[in-house]
């Protein structure tokens, strides 16, 4: 049933076949069909409507952060989606070679490492790990990032992010990503690297983010060079 939704055979906004028809189509019992339908409802593929039936829902979230600097919550709320953030870990540590190079730090410098799982309408959407320099932000460790935006806190500390550069790859989900994002192992994910710069041009944020491929799409705005 999921495959038929994904390939468009069961079309968005349309009713799925009746329970007895699905049982005959897949040669299974009606209780098995009922269980499968409920699982797809739980995953967001289907929605039960009173006095109408079960319809195929629109599952793609159009992400605009590729050309707009805006907080995750603000962007999702503007689309009518409810959001939540789970902080998986937040600590200071010595920067790895990758993070050190990304932020232009000296060898041995410390950074904050903020790992978050972000939800829309109770579904996990993105698993993101962010790094920012430790030394200029001694009080950042006191912030509750289940409620607060990283970019807002950086702006409060006079390190507002005004320009970003992003690198996009398409990858297959490994086991840990599968568990975090509630997707199958080897399911496609969008893998973003982000470098956030202040008005002075200093890179003050580096993050890696894994977006579910099944419920996200991305908008890009391209201008012709003069």
UniProtKB/TrEMBL annotation:
<dbReference type="GO" id="GO:0003677">
    <property type="term" value="F:DNA binding"/>
</dbReference>
<dbReference type="InterPro" id="IPR028978">
    <property type="entry name" value="Chorismate_lyase_/UTRA_dom_sf"/>
</dbReference>
<dbReference type="InterPro" id="IPR000524">
    <property type="entry name" value="Tscrpt_reg_HTH_GntR"/>
</dbReference>
<dbReference type="Pfam" id="PF07702">
    <property type="entry name" value="UTRA"/>
</dbReference>
<dbReference type="InterPro" id="IPR036388">
    <property type="entry name" value="WH-like_DNA-bd_sf"/>
</dbReference>
<dbReference type="InterPro" id="IPR050679">
    <property type="entry name" value="Bact_HTH_transcr_reg"/>
</dbReference>
<keyword id="KW-0238">DNA-binding</keyword>
<protein>
    <submittedName>
        <fullName>Transcriptional regulator</fullName>
    </submittedName>
</protein>
<feature type="domain" description="HTH gntR-type">
    <location>
        <begin position="1"/>
        <end position="59"/>
    </location>
</feature>
<keyword id="KW-0805">Transcription regulation</keyword>
<dbReference type="Pfam" id="PF00392">
    <property type="entry name" value="GntR"/>
</dbReference>
<dbReference type="InterPro" id="IPR011663">
    <property type="entry name" value="UTRA"/>
</dbReference>
<keyword id="KW-0804">Transcription</keyword>
<dbReference type="GO" id="GO:0003700">
    <property type="term" value="F:DNA-binding transcription factor activity"/>
</dbReference>
<dbReference type="GO" id="GO:0045892">
    <property type="term" value="P:negative regulation of DNA-templated transcription"/>
</dbReference>
<dbReference type="InterPro" id="IPR036390">
    <property type="entry name" value="WH_DNA-bd_sf"/>
</dbReference>
